[in-house]
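Subject: Interface between my chains keeps coming out wrong

I've been trying for a while to get a sensible model of this assembly. When I model each chain on its own everything looks fine, but I need the whole thing in one frame so I can look at the contacts. Pasting all components below, labels as-is. Any help appreciated, I'm running out of ideas.
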Amino acid sequence: MIPVNEPLLDGNEKKYVLECLETAWISSEGPMIKKFEDEFSRYIGTKHGIAVCNGTAALEVALFAAGIQENDEVILPSFTIISCALAILRLGAKPVLVDVEPDTWNMQVHAIESKITSKTKAIMPVHIYGHPVDMDPVLELARKHGLLVIEDAAEVHGAEYKGRKCGSMGHLSCFSFYANKIVTTGEGGMVLTDDDAMAARARSYRNLCFQEKERFCHEELGYNFRMTNIQAAIGVAQLEQIEKRIVFKRKMGQCYREALAKIPGIQTQVEKPWAKTVYWMYAIQLSPTLGQNARQVMQKLKEAGIATRPFFRGLHSQPALNRRGLFIGEKYPVTEQAYTYGFYLPSGMTLTESQVHIVCQNLEKILLNHG
Ligand SMILES: *Cc1c(COP(=O)(O)O)cnc(C)c1O
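Reply #2:
Try treating it as a single job with all components included. I did that and got this:
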């Protein structure tokens, strides 16, 4: 079986983890946390990094740090992971959706303004599958309307927009270090910001809102979203190799693009002229004229020993959200089309060039043999 992803731990991971064990620094009180926060935030280009236990928590921490409260509205794409909506709902705020572009599956920035109301407090662009959102119009809109921008950069470690790193452009940004992300700590996440006050709020929320003056007196309700020193140790080792990882991903992307160009009816994620994409996952969308949807083709690939993953189901059609009265009757046709016909191919750090060719040959056979 060619897996969708397999984490690669070929640097100093073992050495640094052993250091944690030998020194008994195994909780979130340990020197690796600050080192990872400092090095990752420096790499992305922000003043502060606040490490947390996963990317979903990072989103919630960022929204809290931004001061998002009950009845506020946050605008985000319909095509994204549930984590984004969860974070908004946990703070009592309301997610408001815009559809995505058919060639990048990133949010339609021109559709944002019509969704802004007197309750809107923030825009949450989600950089999808390694490709940046067109950020300048988002930042411009935010300035014009006095909104905050919170980037979900969980899929774009090292990607760039007009030479600026994803995760460095919003007031806050969030990363995930889950095992399939470009830099991993197994489970983990980080909030980045240049703002001192927001950083302090994020640190507080991550750690039960303990107070300096009187530790066990709580003015606000926080969580335990702390990362362990052991996780951070893995992250420090991964970060030492990030440039190599990005070169690998871009080469993989080019290899797929060239091999898939010969197969009619397959749309790949376009790399915009202003983007440096990092191909977190190599995503494709089938043309309906091929007569098969994503699930049918994925099943046949599975039978050929090739693992894939479906695209996100739109937030507007999540039963758990509809049951709360959200998005009833709203339509996001590009998201629907992507959900029906899109999936991603094996894209891990251990994938070989010959495996890319096996995947593409099988895909071609499956598409051509149909009907
Ligand atoms: C992975 C991911 C998350 C959530 O990260 P976890 O660490 O799995 O909680 C959030 N947003 C996006 C876009 C992701 O891809």
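Reply #3:
Confirming on my end. The domain at 245-370 is CATH 3.90.1150.10 (Aspartate Aminotransferase, domain 1).
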